[in-house]
Amino acid sequence: MTLVRTRLVALVAAALSTLLVLAVQPALAERGTPLSDAFAKAAAAHDVPRDLLVALGYAETHLDGHAGEPSASGGYGLMHLVDNPTNKTLSEAAALTGQPAATLKKDDAANILGAAAVLRSYADKLGLDEAARKDAGRWYKAVAEYGHASSPETARLYADAVYEMLGLGLQARGVTVEPQEVTADRGDLAKARDLNAQAAVASPDYPPAAWVAASSSNYRVSNRETSYNIDRIVIHVTQGSYAGTISWFQNPAAQVSAHYVVKSSNGAITQMVRDKDVGWHAGNSTYNNRSIGIEHEGWVNDASWFTDAMYRSSAALTRHLADKYGVPKNRTGIIGHNEVPGATHTDPGPHWNWTTYMNYVNGGTTNPPTWTTTVDNASSQFTASTNWGTSAYSSQRHGADYRFADPVAASDPAWYSAAIPSAGTYRIEVWYPSDPGYNSSAPYIVAAAGGNQTVYVDQRSGGGAWRSIGTFQLNAGTQNVVGVSRWTGGTGYVIADAVRISRI
């Protein structure tokens, strides 16, 4: 049995240095809503951990049923019950619950109940008894099975996304999951390649990305730019999750692919088709031949997926591709899928901010702040456990010193609090000294209005200056706003120095 502890929660130090005491941010009371009641009833009916069920739904759709419209891979409802040649969770749910497929597609409560029934059936196949079912960590392989991934590595990516939501906590559509510690039993999936890790196989064309090959049935081998010139970059939205899209492009039944896929929460990128080859993404053979397709995790009708981390990461990729292939860095060379001649798709849709995106592509900056505050690690607004040491080693530090800690399989974050004057959009910037011995993937947790969001920063470089990690919706009031977690697959000391929060 292989276990991994995931704890991405707010931790505060206790007086006893020999004991790590966990303390999450103040609990948020959840009043009964139709959706929260539906999760509670479905979890009780099938003896599935309620928070796990919510986290699975959030990882798939942000708890949005999209009025019964299907995802790119044929998934329906906020729990993404699927009907395609290799994934039949919709029909499984219908058989287990007696509900017709049409109801499961459009009715939120039925959809949640159906997903709980399917998940429980997978737990039964794994032999989880009543006691084991009470432990959310023991459901890991059942969650991975629910995603019907095309490979062990994408199965792990899918399940890890769900368990990350448990560790971070979430709030969406009147449903709350508090941050919590879970020991996940990955079983044999622990041996699968971790696509979130620094050690993931690098992209052959864009080294910051990971490489996962699409099925050879989903693209055409070519020799661009000898066979065709690349003069367009096409922006897409996946209509599904990051892990689900990667898995779908690995599936020979898909008959579609894009060159790159970008993750919503932290801007991680996976390349799936070589730049030289022709991806089947534009719905127009001429444009397929001449373009590179970039898919972005999310749904066109839900703005919550389009994070600043996604915009910045994708824009850096687009800028690299445009410079490499001579694509104009304007809206002639960089287009939406909906702008391809004959397109039947509407992505990236009305919530995609072209102004912000093109500004980032061309190296522009964000709007000037209307309010700002800086919190240094020496401030009374900074809290950290005794596991965090203090150093003045680097001259790149902000103020007199900074804090450091070893990475561990526990969050134990240092927290920066601030008095946010009003609800709105805020830019978060971080300051840290950089060093080759510092962390390659330091997790910064932002307590955003819609739930905690995590951005990973390579602290080996780029130090000694303010570095934006994105814009976020924050609630008004005095609260922990930014945390630096120790839970990371990166190597080297995790550094906590200073943060700057600005209303824009």
Structural class from helices and strands? alpha+beta
Q: State the separation between the terminal residues, measured CA to CA.
A: 49 Å
Main pleated sheet: 6 strands, mixed
Which regions contain 5 or more consecutive residues with pLDDT less than 50? 1-29
Mean pLDDT: 89
Share in β-strands: 15-25%
Largest sheet, spatial ordering of strands: 7-11-10-13-9-14
Query: Helical content, roughly?
Result: 25-40%
Total strands: 26
The protein's oligomeric status is single chain
Global Rg: 22 Å
**Principal-axes shape call:** globular
Counting DSSP H or I runs of 4 or more residues, the number of helices is 12
Descriptive notes:
It is a single chain. With 504 residues, the protein is α+β, with helices and mostly antiparallel strands. 25% of the residues lie in helices and 23% in strands. It has helices at 34-46, 50-61, 89-97, 101-106, 108-126, 130-133, 140-146, 152-168, 242-250, 285-290, 308-325, 354-361, and strands spanning 3-6, 75-76, 81-82, 170-172, 175-177, 182-185, 210-211, 219-220, 232-237, 260-262, 269-271, 278-279, 291-296, 334-336, 371-376, 382-383, 389-391, 402-405, 414-420, 424-431, 442-448, 451-457, 467-474, 477-484, 494-496, 498-503. A six-stranded mixed β-sheet has the order 7-11-10-13-9-14, with helices on both faces. Helix 7 crosses helix 8 and helix 8 packs antiparallel against helix 9 (242-250). The longest helix has 19 residues, at 108-126. It is globular, with a radius of gyration of 22 Å. The chain starts with a strand and ends with a strand. The model is unreliable at 1-29 (pLDDT under 50).
